[in-house]
Specification:
The chain is mainly alpha-helical. The chain has a domain of about 190 residues. Helices cover about 70% and strands about 0% of the residues. It is built from 16 helices and two strands. A two-stranded parallel ribbon has the order 1-2. Helix 1 runs parallel beside helix 11 and helix 6 packs across helix 10. It is globular.
Length: about 400
């Protein structure tokens, strides 16, 4: 059996080394001390601009920018990407999923490192039309995730369409770039209009998005080739996903950002695992695509009617299974755990009582000592539950559901 390759081992060891070194030298706190006051100053000085823009508010603009924010939000992509897989455009779907996970990780890391506030409300008027926007408002401000994600995903979608159709018309290429630029501009302006971000947040999101997009356009073919035909793909990606749960900065105060990262980290693992196992059956380049004679729209509707309920059931079952298994495994390995949401009986510690510093913790076992750099008395089991829940959902999208399509001749 082939052993893990040198570059994979180097990458994993590099992440472990970075987690240990950054924790030992308090890298997050030092970076925050350099950046937070500067960013906060620009947020405060940018408040008059937001107030000036909001003087022209009306119901139409409120609905327009709230709607635009919804169609480029994480929940939208979570619903849209499974459908993209089932249209037959598997390469585009998996590339956009991994790019989304990459953007989510980097953007949220920067947010929690800097820990800079959003514009103060009041005096600005903050519009949160959905529960997702209310959760976003609990995160730190810089960079604007909506702007960053829009730049990356719409930019990559344009690149894919131009490459797939092989259009040689300079006018159509220019029109595509203009359309993407218009969408990014509307999203960025809308985030300021809604009172969700200051100008410095949007500019940072735009700059980061362009850098990430340029990087992804260089590496995406190498990443895709590794997923569909590489060695040790599932083992490597599983280890990578696990380490990325630790290679994340601690914010000044808790926010939902880490939860979003955990979810998309799990999605990436589920997609990679499922595609790697079933590429030649369901995800190769010759599969039928929607709006063709092999996959008419009526058949695609049938896929949605079968696929969407299936992945929701798998998500529920994955969560229930993780809530049952993870506490048992953690206790067996001597890892102290707690739960903030999913398991009320673990609200404070693994035995349901107030957690405390004691010899029991010091002698909790080798696995817990392995993570001494985390400086935690107990690990939040909700992280593992959320991770496995979304990994199971993503696996169902690319493995279980296509198998059902095959059995049902969809």
């Amino acid at each position: 059996m082939e052993s893990i390759s040198a570059w994979q081992l180097t990458a994993l060891c590099g992440i472990v080394s970075w987690v240990v070194v950054s924790s030992f030298f308090n890298v997050t706190q030092k970076l925050r001390s350099l950046l937070q006051s500067w960013v906060s100053h620009h947020v405060v000085t940018g408040t008059p601009l937001i107030i000036q823009i909001q003087k022209y508010h009306n119901g139409f603009l409120d609905s327009l920018f709230s709607g635009l924010s919804c169609i480029v939000s994480v929940p939208f992509y979570t619903a849209f990407l499974p459908l993209l897989f089932w249209t037959g455009h598997g390469k585009l779907a998996r590339q956009m999923t991994l790019l989304m996970a990459f953007c989510d990780y980097l953007g949220n890391c920067i947010k929690d490192v800097v820990s800079a506030p959003r514009p103060s409300s009041p005096p600005i008027r903050r519009i949160t039309a959905t529960k997702d926007e209310e959760d976003n408002a609990m995160e730190y401000g810089l960079p604007s995730s909506h702007t960053l994600n829009t730049v990356c995903l719409s930019g990559f979608l344009l690149y894919y369409v131009l490459s797939y159709t092989q259009l040689e018309s300079a006018f159509l290429n220019f029109a595509g770039v203009l359309l993407v630029s218009l969408l990014v501009s509307l999203i960025g302006f809308g985030r300021i209009y809604l009172g969700m971000h200051s100008l410095i947040d949007v500019i940072s999101g735009l700059a980061m998005g362009l850098v990430i997009l340029a990087f992804w356009l260089i590496v995406h073919e190498y990443v895709d080739n590794f997923i569909v035909s590489g060695q040790n793909v599932t083992t490597f990606w599983g280890a990578l996903s696990f380490l990325l749960l630790f290679a994340y900065p601690t914010p000044e105060f808790p926010t939902p950002s880490f939860e979003f990262h955990t979810a998309f980290n799990g999605v990436a693992l589920g997609i990679v695992t499922g595609v790697q196992q079933t590429y030649h059956q369901f995800h190769h380049e010759a599969v039928p695509r929607v709006f063709t004679t092999q996959l008419p729209f009526s058949t695609f509707v049938g896929r949605m009617l079968v696929g969407i309920p299936t992945i929701l059931v798998v998500k529920f079952c994955s969560k229930a299974l993780a809530k049952w298994i993870l506490p048992i495994v953690s206790n067996a390995l001597g890892i102290p755990i707690r739960s903030t949401t999913y398991i009320p009986t673990l609200g404070k510690s693994s035995n349901g009582k107030n957690s405390k510093k004691s010899d029991d913790f010091k002698q909790a076992g080798y696995m817990q000592k392995l993570f001494f750099f985390s400086n935690q008395e107990a690990f939040d089991i909700d992280t593992g539950i959320r991770f496995l829940q979304y990994a199971g959902l993503a696996w169902a999208v690319v493995d279980l559901v296509p198998s059902l399509f095959s059995q049902l001749s969809l």
